[in-house]
């Protein structure tokens, strides 16, 4: 009997301890494509978000000294069921206050509709660029720190025209990302005097796209625009296009910008490939982030790393502003900490932000990837960077100026 009572006492004590430990944690989940067509792009994005968490904890923690933690789950990028299940675990098992992610648009839409919106959980995606995110009926719960592809597609089209490329074949992955980007590109390219000789969707994950390439090349274009993913169909299509000798110029967008693509296909093959990606404007926040990332041995120029840092840091600021780890009221707090007017907060300035919030002073976060003045749809303005494969890697050619193109 005494042993039984002792066991019960130990169990009760352990449960109390576990409950206390959990009560000392605030959770922001991360949804990423750790496997699938962007698996090589996801780790640096996750690193960016984790760096924000590190800064919070190193400077006293959140909500009076609690530890900020970031459980993560794999959406696979391409599987809506996997994304829904991953989000469900974050919302209903991990009981996160908010979510950074998802990354691929289809994963974000599935996660939002099936778990986050019903659970009242704010999501901030650092990488979902498709226009479909704008149209979500989300109760003001879904935001993003990256501009819509409606802008990137336009800028990519105008960039090609400025380089004298006026004839192109376009293939895009058959999902929200590919469709939205292709529509924006094609509309602008033709409006600016270009000709889209072929415009065809393709399914991700196949081993052979030679039939599609034959159709794409039938119009005689020498330029192939591939709007897909570096570790998925985009890589296979470029390899088979080169082997067929059908095209001489390759073009892509942000989903294709990864040095793993160049390594897989060959630097000599992709030398001169043109691409675009969302970038970070030249502001105090971007300069500060570059130094902080370099100190943490993180590549500050990695695709969407800065946007992920901002998503995580903004959510932490919103939780602090909201005064609790409760989900209710967080979207309003997020809009407050991200918008002028207010005392400027730069990346890494967590302790300063906490003091200002405690004093009742409004703050305005100026981020690693720009100023995030969310519009009514949770979208932000942004800038687009020209990328070019040079000497075996994607190298930035600078910001694209809409006025100059």
From TrEMBL:
Residues 1-23 form the signal peptide. Gene3D superfamilies: 3.40.50.2300. Keywords: Amino-acid transport, Signal, Transport. Pfam families: Peripla_BP_6. One of its GO terms (biological process) is amino acid transport. Residues 25-338 form the Leucine-binding protein domain. PANTHER family: LEUCINE-SPECIFIC-BINDING PROTEIN (PTHR30483), PERIPLASMIC BINDING PROTEIN OF ABC TRANSPORTER FOR NATURAL AMINO ACIDS (PTHR30483:SF6). This is Branched-chain amino acid transport system substrate-binding protein.
């Amino acid at each position: 009997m005494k042993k039984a009572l002792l066991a019960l006492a130990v169990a009760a004590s352990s449960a109390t301890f576990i409950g206390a430990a959990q009560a000392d944690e605030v959770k922001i989940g991360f949804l990423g494509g750790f496997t699938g067509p962007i698996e090589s792009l996801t780790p640096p994005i996750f690193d960016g978000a984790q760096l924000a968490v590190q800064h919070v904890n190193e400077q006293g923690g959140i909500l009076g000294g609690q530890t900020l933690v970031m459980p993560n789950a794999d959406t696979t990028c391409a599987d809506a069921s996997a994304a829904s299940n991953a989000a469900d675990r974050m919302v209903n098992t991990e009981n996160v206050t908010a979510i950074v992610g998802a990354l691929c648009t289809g994963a974000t839409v599935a996660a939002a509709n099936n778990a986050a919106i019903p659970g009242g959980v704010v999501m901030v995606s650092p990488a979902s660029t498709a226009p479909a995110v704008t149209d979500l009926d989300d109760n003001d719960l879904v935001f993003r720190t990256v501009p819509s592809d409606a802008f990137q597609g336009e800028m990519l089209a105008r960039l090609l025209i400025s380089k004298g490329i006026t004839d192109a074949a376009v293939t895009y992955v058959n999902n929200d990302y590919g469709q939205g980007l292709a529509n924006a590109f094609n509309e602008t390219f033709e409006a600016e005097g270009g000709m889209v000789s072929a415009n065809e969707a393709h399914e991700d994950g196949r081993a052979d796209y030679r039939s599609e390439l034959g159709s794409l090349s039938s119009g005689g274009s020498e330029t192939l625009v591939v709007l897909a993913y570096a570790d998925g169909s985009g890589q296979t299509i470029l390899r088979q296009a080169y082997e067929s000798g059908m095209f001489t110029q390759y073009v892509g967008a942000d989903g294709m910008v990864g040095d793993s693509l160049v390594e897989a296909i060959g630097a000599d093959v992709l030398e001169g490939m043109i691409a675009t990606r969302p970038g970070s404007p030249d502001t105090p926040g971007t300069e500060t982030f570059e130094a902080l990332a370099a100190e943490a041995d993180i590549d500050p120029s990695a695709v969407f790393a800065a946007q992920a840092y901002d998503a995580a840091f903004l959510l932490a600021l919103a939780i602090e502003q909201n005064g609790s780890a409760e989900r209710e009221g967080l979207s309003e707090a997020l809009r407050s900490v991200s918008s002028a007017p207010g005392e400027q907060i730069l990346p890494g300035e967590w302790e300063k932000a906490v003091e200002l919030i405690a004093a009742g002073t409004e703050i305005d976060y100026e981020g690693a990837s720009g100023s995030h003045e969310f519009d009514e749809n949770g979208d932000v303005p942004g800038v687009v960077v020209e990328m070019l494969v040079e000497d075996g890697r994607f190298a930035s050619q600078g910001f694209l100026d809409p006025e100059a193109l």
